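Honest question from a wet-lab person: if I give you the sequences of every part of a complex, can you actually get the arrangement of the whole thing, not just the pieces? Trying it with mine:
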Amino acid sequence: MIAFPDIAWTALLPALILTATAILALVADLWMEGPDREGLGWIGLVGLAATAITALALWNTRVSTLADTIAVDRYGLFFTLLFCVASGLTLLMSMSYLELTEIKTGDYYALVLFSTLGMVLMASATDLIVIFLGLEVMSVAAYALAGIARGETRSNEAALKYFLLGAFATGFLLFGVALVYGATGSTALPVIAQRLAQLGAEQRVLLTAGIALLIVGFGFKIAAVPFHVWAPDVYEGSPTAVTALMAVGIKAAAFAAFARVFMHTFELFAVDWRSVLWVLSVLTMTVGNVTALLQRNIKRMLAYSSIAHAGYVLVGMVAGGEAGGSALLFYLIGYAFMTLGAFAVVIALGRRGQPNELLDDYAGVGFRSPFLGVAMIIFMLSLAGFPPLVGFMGKFYLFSAAVQSGYVGLAIIGVLNSLVSVYYYAGVLVRMYMVEGTTEVAAPSSRPYLFATLLLTVTATVALGLFPSSLFEVARQSFLALG
Amino acid sequence: MLSFTVFAPLLGVLFLMLMPKEQASALRRGAFVFSLLPFALSLVLLARFDAGNPGMQFAERAPWIPAFGISYSIGVDGMSLFLVLLTTFLMPIVILAGWGDIHARVKEYMVLMLLLETAMLGAFVATDLFLFYVFWEAMLVPMYFIIGVWGGERRIYAALKMVLYTMAGSLLMLVAILALAWTHSQQHGQLTFDLQRLYELSVPLHIQRWLFAAFALAFAIKVPMFPLHTWLPDAHTEAPTGGSVILAGVLLKMGTYGFLRYAIPLFPLAAHEALPIIAALAAAGIVYGALVSMVQPDLKRLVAYSSVSHLGFVMLGMAALNTQGVQGSIYQMLNHGLSTGALFLAVGMIYDRRHTRLIKEFGGLWAPLPVYAAIFMVVMLSSAGLPGLNGFVGEFLILLGAFGVYPTATVVAVSGIVLGAVYLLWMYQRVMFGPLENAANRVLPDLSRREIAVFAPIVVMLFVMGMYPQPFLSRMEPSVQAYVSRVQQRMAAGEKHLQLSARASESRAGRAGQAGPDAQCAPRQSRQSLGTSGRPCTSQLSTVDCRLHPS
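Yes, you can. This is the full assembly:
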C-alpha cells in the first residue's frame, strides 16, 4: 500500500481556490448566453482576489507539503501575488478587448486562469518534476490562448510556432532534469543542494550538462537571446491581451523557477554558471534593444523590449545574493505594471477590425486622447528607465546589486542598453505627440474595464517609483525566504 | 519653505490641468501668475539668507529609501542660491514671452514649463546624489517635449539628439554614483548618497579617475564643453523661443553647477589632474565658439554658438579653483542666463514678425524698430562684456582668478573676448544698421507693451549686476571660500598621502616607484607661481613635497 503523504491543505488554499475558479469559469460558460461573457471575467477576478487574499493571509507561514514538492513560503507567495495581479489586469483588459475581436469562446477566461495556476505551481515547486508540471500547465494553456483567435492566420501561426518551439524547449528542460537526477539521484531541490558537495568527477560532468540544458529550457521561457526567436512572431500574432500575459506572467513564472533553482539550489556549485548567465544577459539586452529599434509594429517592438528586459532581470541573477535576488523580484513587479499598461494602451488604440498596431498609427494620438497619451508617456518613460518611475527604481536596484557584487562592466553595459532603448521608446512618443495623424481613438471612458486597467497600472508605475521602499523590503524578505 | 519653493510650480500644473484647453488666454494668465509664486518664494529665501553662513541653509531632510541610505535632503548655499533665483526669475519671463509665439496647445506647453521648473529647482537644491540624479533626469523629459512638439522643422531630430547625448553621459554617471555609494559602504559599512558624507570619503586615486571621468562626461555634455557641444546648436535652433531661453539660461548651468557641486569636490584628486585639461578645453571652446559664431548666417545659431564660448569662461574660472575664479564662474553663469536668454528672446521676437532668422534678410531695422534696437543693443553689449554691464564683472573675475593658474589659457580666453565683441557687433551692425532694403522689414511693428515687459526686468538686472555686484558676490563669498579651501585641502592631503605611500613603495621596491612622484610634481609647477593669490595650501605643500622628492 502506498503511504499517502500528509497534506497541509490550508497552505495550498491559494492554488486550490485558483483551480476551483478556473473550473467554475469553464463550467459557467455553459450558462452564459450570447456574445457578452464579461460575467466570466468577473468570476475570474473574484477568484484571483480570493487567491491573493489567502496568499496574503499565509504570508507568515513556511510549510513544505505534498511530499516536499511544494513550498508555501514568502518566495512562492510573493510570486502568487504577482501572478494574481498580472492575470487580474489581463482579465480586466480582456473584458474590453474581447469585444473588439472575433474571440467568442468562454474558454478564454478559463485558460487564462489555468495558465495562472501553472505559474503559481512553478513558483512554489521545490521539485524539478513539479516545476516541469507547472511549466506544462502554464504553457499548454498559453499555446491554446495564442491561437484562440481562430479566424486569424496570424494567431494560428503564433500558436503553432509557440507550441512547436515550446515543446522542443521543454524537451531540453526535461532532459536537463534527467541529467541532474542522474548526477545527484534526486529531483528534490533541497536534496540536490545537499548532495552537490559530495559529487564525484563523473557526476559533476553530468550535472554540468544538466545545468546547461536547464538554462536552455528556462532561457526559452524567459525569451533570452539566443532562445528568443519565437517571441516576436508569437507576441505579434497572439491576441494582444494574451501577449501581455505572456510578456509578464509567463516570463515572471519562468524567472521564479529559474531563480529558485539557480540562485538557491545551485548557488554554490563550483561550475561557473554565472559567467554563462553574464553572457546571456549581455546578449539578451543588446540584441533585444538593438532589434527593437528596427520594428514598425508596436507589438513586435514591445516583444523585443520584453526580451531586453529579461536581460536586465538576468543582471540580478548574475549579481546574486540578497541584493541581486531582491532586485530581481522588485523588477519583475515593476515590469509587470508598466508592460501590462503599455499593452493596455495598444488595445485602447485598436478598433473593431482595425487593430492599429503599426507605430505609424500612433501619429498624433497623444493630443487627441490626452489620457491615453499621458499613460503611454508614463509607461514608455518607465520602460526606458526615467526617474522617478518604477522602471528606473528597478534598474537602480539591479545595477546597484551588480556594482555591489563587482560586476561594474555588466552595469555599464546595462545602462548603455537603456540608452539604446530610449531611442525606440521615445520613438513612440515622437509619433504620438510630434507627428500629425488621423487615427481615430475611442474615448477611454467608453471602455470602462480598459480605463480601469490603465488607471491601476499608471498609479502603480508612478507610486512604486516614488515610494519603492516598502515593496523592496517585501521583495527582500521574500527572497530571503529561499534560504 | 525650500520644498515649497521647489514644488510650488506643481500647484500651477494642477491648476492648469483642471482648466479647459480652449481658453488659451486664461491658461496663459494662469501660468504666468503661478510662475510668479515660486519667484516670490525664492525672494523670501533671498531675504532670509544668512550671508555669513557658508553651509547649507533652509536644509530639509527626510528618509526616502532608508535601506539604501537615500534621503530627500535639500538645502541652499551661496553657490546655489542665485541659480535658484535665476530659474524662478526667468520662468515668468519665458511664460510671458510664450504668450506671443505659442498658439497651439497652450495648456500642454505651460504645464511642461512648470514641470520643468520644479525639476530644475530640485536639481539645484538637492544635497543627496540620488535625489539630484532623479531631478537631473526628470528635467530632460519636459524639455524633450518642448523642443519636439513646439520646435521648428527638424525638431524631432534635435529633441532626440539632445536626449540621447545627455542620457549617454548621465547613465554612466549613475553607475559612478552607485560605485561611489558602495565604496562608502565598504569603508564605513553603510550605504549613503548623502553629499556631505560622500565629500568626506577618501576614494583611491585610480577609482577616482574613473568616477570623475563618468561625472565629468555627464556634466561636460550638458555644459556643453568643446568638443561635446554638437547637440546644442541643433537643440537651440529648433526649440521654441521659451525653450531656448530656458535651455541656455538654466539647463546649461546644470552642467557647470554639476562640476562645481559634484564632480570636483567629490573627486578632488582626479579633479586636480583633470583641471588643466578642463582649462585647456575651456579656452579652446571660447575661441572655437566665437569663431563659429562669426560665420553663422542664422541669428539663433549665432547665439547658440556664443553659448559655447561663454560657458568656456565659466569652466575656466571654475578650473582655476580660487575664490575669484569660482565666484566669477558663478557670476558668469547668472550673466549668461540673463544675457543669452535675452538674446534668444530678441531673436524670437524678430522671428515672430518676419518668420526668418537669416541675418542677410535684415538690415536697417533701427528705423522701424527703435525700441527693439535699443534693447537689443544693451543685451548684446552685456553679452560682449562691456564694462558697466554684468558680463564684464564675471569675465573680469574669471580672468583675474585664472591668470595666475593657467596663464596661457587665460591669454587665449582674452582673445576670445575680442572675438566675442567682433561677432556680436558685426551681427548687430548687419541687422540694425545700413540701408533698409528689404520691403518686408519696413512695415514691422515695434515691440508691444507685453514684449517690453518681457525685457524690462532682464535689462534692469543687467545694469544692476554690472554696476553693483557686491550684494551678489558677498552672499556667494563665504560658501565659495569654504568650498575652495575644502577642495584645496583635500587635494593637498590626498597628494601627501599618495606621496607617502609612493615613497613607502619606493623604499620597498627600490627604483620601481620613481615614476610616480615624478609625474605628480610636473603638472603642479605652473601653479606654484601663484603662492599669494588664493591657493596657499596646495602651492606651499606641493613645493615642499617636490623638494622632498627630487626627481
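Two things worth pointing out. The mean pLDDT of chain B is 86. Chain B has 22 helices and two strands.
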